[in-house]
Design a protein that fits this description.
mainly beta; 4-stranded antiparallel β-sheet; 8 strands; 0% helix
Amino acid sequence: MQAVVKIKGNQYLVSEGTELLVNNLNTEDKNLSFSDVLLYSDDKSFEIGKPFLTNCTVTADNLEAVKGDKVRVSKYKAKSRYRRVVGFRSKLNRIRIEKIVLK
């Protein structure tokens, strides 16, 4: 059983038991539910939404909030002694897909 689900503007191919790193969800809830399912597939059926499936939901557990890898951004201008370096770490959530339910 697989589904393509839209979470915070990104699309993920998920199945039950999959762990994902997604953009910051800004929630402390342990149980999450996503209704923006674009595609559902299993051994017997295959459904494509237009744009979303109305009879399918994906439930997940919010495991932890983590930070991503550091990205270094630098600015440089020649012949003027101008150099700046800034670091950035994005906020992410680790989630585990529990169930894909087709009604």
